[in-house]
Prior knowledge:
Elements: H1 6-21, H2 50-60, H3 69-73, H4 83-90, H5 94-101, H6 110-119, H7 124-135, H8 151-158, E1 164-167, E2 173-176, H9 178-183, H10 193-199, H11 201-206, H12 210-228, H13 233-245, H14 247-254, E3 267-270, E4 280-287, E5 296-301
Antiparallel strand pairs: 1-2, 1-5, 3-4, 4-5
Amino acid sequence: MSGFGGLRGEKLIMGALARCRQGRVKVVRVFPILLPSRRGSAPMPNRHRVGDFLREWRAKMDPNLVPGFTARFGARNKPGIKQAEMAVLTGVTEGWYRRLEAGRIENPKTEWLERIVRALDLNEAQRYTLFVYAKGQEPPPLYRPAAVIDPSTTAVVHGQPWPAYISDASWDMLLYNDLCVRNWPWIKYGINIMVWCLTYPEARLQLINWEEDWGKPMASQLRLAHEQQPENRRLAEVVAEIKERDKVAARLLTDDLTSVTHPDGDRRWMYLPNRGEEEFEVIFRCFAPLSDKSQRMMLIVPPDYSADS
């Protein structure tokens, strides 16, 4: 039986079936056999195993790494995130999340699994494992916009003592430094900035006074940019995605009358990883190269301007 797996085993089975159809083989009994997929994913997921992985990942996750966790759920001095807390972090009911870990959800949405990836800060192999066992398929590739950034500009971003990043005209992330990832782990997953800030559950956990200080100003920026650039197909996709994802964000984009063109100089408050319920004020400084104003460089600076802060 050692040679019965893989492509060779599949050929043996298919050959036997062909001989059976030709009347050359008498079939006594047929046992169902699950053939391996040539695309690298199982035809049917082994869903009961997904709970084993999720429980292990939850048990090892440090809740202090989740910005705003302490302010919402209280201080925690040991690793571990509960099912009820995962439900809040991923924007579903506790019962729905329990069903996933019990293997009772046949085809969970990709977006919901991606929320779990971010909440538990899963690496590439763990993300792949989650999708294979929960959906029976490999995860979709992360979105990476094609853009050319001058090496000198890259050096400027990475040389900053504060979080710094560059986004394009549609608010897709093009470049960021390590301090950005430390403070906003979602950045490494290739998520559009506006989509994250306006629709994702963890954004409303981390960003203090979300609707007034973050949602309304950012929705105004996006709305004005979309009106000014109707030919920008990617920008139109971002607007449509936000409206489809979240009713509150859709209302802000459609009905709110806030008028903000840029956040330069704005002061806002947020929670940071490993800082518990301490609230941090930050100032946004915004720049654009004269040669390509579609690229925005953002610096997130503390109010005391100290590089050590």
